[in-house]
C-alpha cells in the first residue's frame, strides 16, 4: 500500500506544466489552513518534554493551544509548564506525571510524543484508540513489528499521524530540492547513495548510582527490562545539557539497544528517509543488508550484550544495502554527515548546511521546472513540520511524513542494527517484511513489553 507524499494534502499541482523556469524555494507564509481564528485552534498535549519535546512544542504553540503536558521527571515537567505558560500569555497547561491522564481527557484533539523511543509505540497506539491524532518523534519504533502494529491501528482508527522527520518540511527546502533533482534526472540513473550519519565514541564503565530526585525511574523504563539507574557525575554541555554525560537515561538513552538504535535510527531516520524518497522506494525495501565493518560498544553473544555497564550500540560502521533497481546504498559513520547521490551523469551532496556539486551549479543556467519543489512535497511547503500536521488534522488527509513510508525506510535502519548484533548479512523480503532463511534473526523483529507495561489494544 503506497502512501507516497505526493498523494497527500491536496492535488494542487495536477496538470502543472514543466516549463523550465526556476523553481522558487521559499517556504509559504506562517499559516495553518483552517485554524486562523482563535476559536478554531486545536487543543494539544505533549508527552515527553526533554530537548525535542520542547522543540516540537515551541514550534506548534503559534497554531495550537497546549492544555496539558506529561513527563515522568518532575523537574522537566515543571520547567516546560513554565515555558509553555509564557508562550501562551500566562495560560498554563495542566501537568501530569502519567501520560494516561492526558489520553483520558476528551477535550484534547492531538498529542505530540517525544518520549524515549522504547515508549513510542505504546503511547501512540493508546492515543489513537483514545481518539487523538498523533505527532510522534522519529524514529517511530524500536522494532519492525511495532511499525506494522502502528500501521494497523492508523488504518483501523482513521487518525491523522505525522512522524517527526522534519527534514521533509524544513531545512530551507534543501532536501526537497535534492529529491527534485534526482527525480528530474539531473544525475541520470542513480547508481549509489551514501548516507553519512556519524559515529560515536564508546563509553567508559558507568556505575549504578542513586536515581535523581523527581525522576520516576520505573515508569521511565516502562516497557523496557527492569534495571538499575546508571550515571557518571560529569554534566553534558550544550544541547542535552543539564544531565550526566554518560548514563542510561536522559539524552544518552539512544546509546542503548534497550531503548533505541544508536546513530542508525537517530540520524539514519533522517538521511535514509530522504534517500528512499528520492529513489522512489517509499513503499518497498532492500533485498539484502551487509555489515561490511563495524564496532559495537561492548562484547555481544548471540545478538545480546554480555555486559550492562556501558553503551552497547554500534560506534563505527559501514553497511551495504542492496536497493531496488540495482542501486547500492551505503550507511556509514565515516565522512561528512549528509547524503551523497551518484548517478550516470554526475553526483551531488546535501545536508542541513549545504547542497553542492556540479548538478547543483548547473541549476543557474538550467533551473528545475516551476513547481518542482511543491510537486515533490505534494503542495505548498508550510512554515514547519507541525503546520503540515495541523493542516492534515483539518483536511483528514495523510501528512507528508506518513507511517507507511517512514516504517519502510526505518526497516533499513533496524535491519542494519540486527545484522551488526548478529555479525552476518541478512536477506530481506520487502513484500512479506521478514528476514529470509534466518529464524534467529527474525526473533529481533519484535520485543516483549515488560509485564505491567503491555500495549492497551482498545
Automatic annotation (TrEMBL):
GO terms for molecular function: nucleotide binding. It holds the Pfam family GFO_IDH_MocA. Residues 205-454 form the Gfo/Idh/MocA-like oxidoreductase bacterial type C-terminal domain. Residues 82-164 form the Gfo/Idh/MocA-like oxidoreductase N-terminal domain. Gene3D superfamilies: Dihydrodipicolinate Reductase, domain 2, NAD(P)-binding Rossmann-like Domain. InterPro entries: Gfo/Idh/MocA-like_OxRdtase_N (IPR000683), Gfo/Idh/MocA_oxidrdct_glycsds (IPR050463), Gfo/Idh/MocA_OxRdtase_bact_C (IPR043906), NAD(P)-bd_dom_sf (IPR036291), TAT_signal (IPR006311), TAT_signal_bac_arc (IPR019546). This is Gfo/Idh/MocA family oxidoreductase. The lineage of its organism: Bacteria, Pseudomonadati, Planctomycetota, Planctomycetia, Pirellulales.
Amino acid at each position: 500500500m503506497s502512501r507516497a507524499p505526493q498523494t497527500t494534502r491536496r492535488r494542487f499541482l495536477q496538470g502543472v506544466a514543466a516549463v523550465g523556469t526556476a523553481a522558487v524555494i521559499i517556504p509559504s507564509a506562517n499559516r495553518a489552513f483552517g485554524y486562523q481564528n482563535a476559536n478554531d485552534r486545536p487543543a494539544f498535549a505533549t508527552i515527553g518534554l526533554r530537548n525535542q519535546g520542547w522543540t516540537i512544542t515551541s514550534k506548534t504553540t503559534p497554531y495550537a493551544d497546549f492544555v496539558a503536558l506529561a513527563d515522568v521527571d518532575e523537574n522537566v515537567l515543571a520547567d516546560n509548564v513554565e515555558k509553555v505558560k509564557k508562550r501562551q500569555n500566562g495560560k498554563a497547561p495542566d501537568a501530569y506525571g502519567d501520560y494516561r491522564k492526558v489520553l483520558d481527557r476528551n477535550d484534547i484533539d492531538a498529542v505530540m510524543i517525544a518520549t524515549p523511543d522504547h515508549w513510542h509505540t505504546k503511547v501512540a497506539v493508546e492515543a489513537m484508540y483514545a481518539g487523538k491524532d498523533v505527532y510522534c518523534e522519529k524514529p517511530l519504533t524500536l522494532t519492525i513489528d511495532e511499525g506494522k502494529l502502528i500501521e494497523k491501528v492508523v488504518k483501523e482508527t482513521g487518525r491523522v499521524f505525522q512522524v517527526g522527520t522534519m527534514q521533509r518540511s524544513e531545512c530551507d527546502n534543501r532536501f526537497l530540492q535534492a529529491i527534485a533533482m534526482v527525480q528530474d534526472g539531473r544525475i541520470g540513473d542513480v547508481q549509489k547513495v551514501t548516507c553519512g550519519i556519524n559515529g560515536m565514541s564508546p563509553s567508559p564503565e558507568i556505575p549504578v548510582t542513586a536515581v535523581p530526585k523527581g525522576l520516576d525511574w520505573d515508569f521511565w523504563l516502562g516497557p523496557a527490562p527492569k534495571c538499575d539507574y546508571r550515571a557518571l557525575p560529569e554534566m553534558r554541555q550544550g544541547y542535552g545539557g543539564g544531565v550526566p554525560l554518560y548514563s542510561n537515561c536522559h539524552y544518552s538513552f539512544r546509546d542503548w539497544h534497550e531503548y533505541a538504535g544508536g546513530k542508525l535510527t537517530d540520524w539514519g531516520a533522517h538521511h535514509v528517509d530522504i534517500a528512499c524518497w528520492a529513489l522512489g522506494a517509499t513503499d518497498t525495501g532492500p533485498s539484502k543488508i551487509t555489515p561490511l565493518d563495524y564496532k559495537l560498544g561492548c562484547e555481544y553473544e548471540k545478538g545480546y550484550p554480555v555486559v550492562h555497564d556501558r553503551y552497547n550500540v554500534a560506534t563505527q560502521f559501514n553497511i551495504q544495502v542492496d536497493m531496488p533497481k540495482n542501486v547500492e546504498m551505503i550507511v556509514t559513520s565515516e565522512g561528512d554527515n549528509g547524503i551523497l547521490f551518484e548517478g550516470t551523469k554526475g553526483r551531488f551532496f546535501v545536508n542541513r548546511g549545504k547542497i553542492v556539486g556540479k548538478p547543483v551549479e548547473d541549476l543557474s543556467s538550467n533551473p528545475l521546472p516551476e513547481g518542482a519543489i511543491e510537486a515533490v512535497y505534494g503542495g505548498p511547503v508550510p512554515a514547519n513540520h507541525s503546520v503540515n500536521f495541523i493542516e492534515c488534522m483539518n483536511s483528514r488527509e495523510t501528512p507528508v511524513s506518513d507511517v507507511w513510508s517512514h516504517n519502510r525506510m526505518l526497516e533499513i535502519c533496524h535491519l542494519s542494527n540486527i545484522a551488526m548484533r548478529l555479525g552476518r548479512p541478512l536477506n530481506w523480503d520487502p513484500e512479506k517484511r521478514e528476514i529470509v532463511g534466518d529464524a534467529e534473526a527474525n526473533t529481533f523483529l519484535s520485543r516483549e513489553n515488560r509485564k505491567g507495561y503491555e500495549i492497551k489494544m482498545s
